[in-house]
Amino acid sequence: MKVLHFYKTFSPQAFGGTEMSIRQLCYASKHLDVSNSILSLSPHPTDVIETDAYTAYQAKEHINIASNAISFSVFKKFKELATASDIIHYHFPWPFMDIVHLLSGIKKPTLVTYESDIVRQKLFMPLYRPLMHRFLEDVDHIVATSPNYLKTSKVLQCYQHKTSVIPIGLDKNTYPTPTRAALEKWQQTFQKPFFLFVGVMRHYKGLHILLDAAKNTDLPIVILGSGPVEMVLKEQAKQLQLKHVFFLGVLPEEDKVALLSLCYAIVFPSHLRSEAFGISLLEGAMFGKPLISSEIGTGTSYINIHKETGYVVPPSNPEALRKAMQDLYDNKLLAEQMGKNAEIRYQTLFTADKMASAYYALYQKLINIL
């Protein structure tokens, strides 16, 4: 079975949640005899990248308007790859993708993984909304990544008749095993139990709320990643004199896994619906860590169940976040049990094999029906 994935970015330039979920799906589905191709855009396209799980192609990105990458040359490549594929798998949102789909006229089975509502670009939505609904009406099937998001998305409510839920899954075996030296280095660096945040520093990640929550505590907090609001956050931490908050920037994957292995708990304060799932929250569950997140009606509260796998607090509420962190820090036995529960939930619902099997069954159904 030949599957073409289409999304605006993919590695080696991009390592966001959607790119990671595509990569995990490709590696897990190769065991099901699925041949995956990935087409994306880049300002500086690379040569074709071939792995044992996928072949990645890049077209030139000519313009980027409001995070909407546009290419004048991708139409030809898309049509060529789509013609050679059995099914086309889109990853939403990307408005230019809708145009490519509608203008290319490819008559192949199609599905779209609905990663997120468009939350921030409110000025453009009145212009984009008719195109978006034309695209979603035209594709054969839609996949939501959690029942929570399907329930709370006004857009998805219009398409319940052709929408199913397939959660994002991860394969722990695709993560590197940290060396003893790496583990010892970070153990010596952070000798007290610490909370860990992993992710790109974007406006919706709620890290400013986490820094406010850290006031008047001595809870060690480690922040791994970088991003657009990094300097603003560092200035906020400086103003608040948060000596127990550590910004590590971007580190190699081995160091990330070492920190995931060593941390006391994962803190994930995303406060807006732009955080549709929370893969780094799922990584914490995979490593058996208790979780703290906010209730925003998305997949974060499908991964993290309040008082079972961790705590779910109201969004944009530093006092509630501070209390959850302190309560967890003061009760080691509770934290250990929540971490075990989180790992069991990961193994039950969120493995890459489960995700790949569900998509494979859907691929087959669409090919056979259409």
Structure description:
The chain has 15 helices and 16 strands. It has 370 residues and is an alpha/beta fold. It has two domains: 2-171 and 351-369, Rossmann fold; 172-349, Glycogen Phosphorylase B (Rossmann fold, 3-Layer(aba) Sandwich), CATH 3.40.50.2000. The strands form three sheets. The protein has an eight-stranded mixed sheet, sandwiched between helices. The protein has a six-stranded parallel sheet with strand order 13-12-11-14-15-16, sandwiched between helices. A two-stranded antiparallel ribbon has the order 5-6. Helix 12 links the parallel strand 15 and strand 16. The two termini are 15 Å apart. The mean pLDDT is 95.
Largest pleated sheet: 8 strands, mixed
Order the strands across the largest sheet as they lie in space.
Answer: 3-4-2-1-7-8-9-10
Say what the CATH topology of the largest domain is: Rossmann fold
How many domains, as an integer? 2
Secondary structure tally, helices: 15
Tell me the fraction of residues in β-strands, as a range: 15-25%
* Gyration radius, in Å: 21 Å
By secondary-structure content and strand pairing, the structural class works out as: alpha/beta
